Each structure stands twice: as C-alpha cells, then as structure tokens.
Amino acid sequence: QVQLVESGGGVVQPGGSLRLSCAASGFTFSDYGIHWLRQAPGKGLEWVSFIRYDGSNKYYADSVKGRFTISRDNSKNTLYLQMNSLRGEDTALYYCAKDLAAAGTSYCFDYWGQGTLVTVSS
Amino acid sequence: QSALTQPPSVSGSPGQSVTISCTGTSSDVGSYNRVSWYQQPPGTAPKLMIYEVSNRPSGVPDRFSGSKSGNTASLTISGLQAEDEADYYCSSYTSSSTPHVVFGGGTKLTVL
User: Fold this and answer.
1) DSSP states of B3-72 as a string?
2) pLDDT computed for residue A38 by the predictor
3) Phi first, then psi: what are they for A105, rounded to 5°?
4) Which of A11, A99, B49, B67 is 20 to 30 A off residue A85, Cα-Cα?
5) A109 — contact with chain B (CB < 8 Å)?
6) pLDDT beyond 70 at B107
7) Statement: residue B70 has pLDDT above 70
8) Confidence of residue B100 (pLDDT cuts 50, 70, 90)
9) Contact residues for A104 (Cβ-Cβ < 8 A; gap 6+)
10) Residue A108 to residue B52, Cβ atoms within 8 A
C-alpha cells in the first residue's frame, strides 16, 4: 500500500534552517509528482511546493519562494524540503502528498503522510 | 482569508443528508473541473474523498457525492454516520499565478 513518511521536523529559532524528508513506498515514486502542504495549528490547509516526477519543474507558494527548496532523489524514493530563513508564520504541520496524476500535475492529492511538526520560536 | 469560501460548520443527525458548499470564482471553481474534497478527522491527515468534481477514489463510500454549478461546488453526504464527523476541505486548481491550487477554510461537520 502507498505510504508516505515525513521526518525532520523540530523546534528552530527564527532565521534558522531545517530539512524535511518524505520517504515513499508502495508505488513507483519516479512516476509521480509530489507536493508539500502545511497546516498551522488550528488552521486550514496551505499548499507549499510541488516537484514534477522527474524533478524538471518546481513550484512554490509566494509565502516561501526564495526561502524553501524542494528536491527529490528517485533512487532513494525520497522527497526533501530545505527550509531556510524560517519565520514564526512557518510554524505548522508539514505534509507530503502524492499527486493523483502520473507524469503530470493534477493538483489533487490522493495520498498524504502523517506530517512532521515544525515550530519556529525563540 | 481563504480563497474558496466554505461554511464554518454544518450538522445533521444520523441517517440524514448534509451538503457543504465551496464558492470560488471564474478563475478557479467556475472554469475548471479540478475540484477536490478532503476529509480530516481530528488528529489525522487529510483523506481524498472526491476528485474532479464528482469522482470517488476506490474505497470511498457512495454516500459521498460531489457536484458543481457555476462558481460553487458542493459535497453531499447522505445517510450520515457518526464516523463522518470531521473537518472537510475543498480545493480547486486556479489559473492565477502560484499557488496553482487554492483551498477553502474548512467546514466542521458535527453528527448530532
């Protein structure tokens, strides 16, 4: 069965950095685009970033552009999110989610991980 | 303020039907059939319930159905069950520059 497992969250000071990972299994990772989304405590869902199945295109929300970098290693079935210059408003549960469409971009998320919590606080 | 507008809460008794609306604009819901609905029980990750307006992924009960009219999409849950109590979020592709997907603020469904 499809599994996505995030890791790398934690407490970091404003201005600091973190690298999140998302280990995938149960499907052909290299065939699908993968997204990062986040949910601040008690709030709704926010799309953060997307990387195409082959890593050829990457997209970011305006709120993280220039600070976050998405990448993937298809040989390791793993997605990453490098987060720099972190701010208080980045505090959230970060989910990785598989795109519904193979070799495309549907912006529909058919499988989600359980999330990893990032807390930005001094 | 979310890009798509959902009612903050809805409620119904077991066996009844409820409908959750999701209102967008001609740049998103009104122009594309890329509306999805997600169910999120407390403390869990979201789960896809409806995609492309009205399609159900394998394993989702047929009590859940989706539709769209103009700039408003709707999720209807018939034969309410206690396990349906959760937050529900709609999303839509948007032709606006990034983000290419927008969400509603979520609707809390209470089964009385």
Assistant:
1) SBB--SEEEE-TT--EEEEEE--TTTTTT-S-EEEEEE-TTS--EEEEBTTTBPPTT--TTEEEEEETTE
2) 98
3) -140, 105
4) A99
5) yes
6) yes
7) yes
8) confident
9) A33
10) yes
C-alpha–C-alpha distance, residues B49 and B54, integer Å: 9
In terms of C-beta density within 10 A (0-12 exposed, 13-18 middle, 19 or more buried), how is residue A57 classed?
exposed
Residues in Cβ contact with A66 at an 8 Å cutoff, skipping those fewer than 6 apart: none
Task: Inform me whether the C-beta atom of residue A46 falls under 8 Å from chain B C-beta atoms.
Answer: yes
Buried b (16+ CB within 10 A) or exposed e, A79-89: bbbebeebeee
Beta bridge partners of B93: B101
**Is 90 exceeded by the pLDDT of residue B55?**
yes
**Torsion, Cα of A117, A121, B3, B7 (10° steps):** 70
Question: Measuring CA to CA, which residue among B75, B77, B103 is closest to residue B1?
Answer: B103
Q: Which residue in A has a C-alpha nearest to residue B49's C-alpha? A: A110
Q: Is the pLDDT of residue B1 over 70?
A: no
Does the beta carbon of B91 lie under 8 angstroms from any beta carbon of chain A?
Answer: yes
- DSSP letters for A101-122: EETS----EEEE---EEEEE--
**pLDDT score of B85:** 97
Judge whether residue B104 has pLDDT over 80. yes
Walking along chain A (122 residues) 10 residues at a time, the average pLDDT comes out as 97 97 97 97 94 94 95 98 98 97 89 98 94
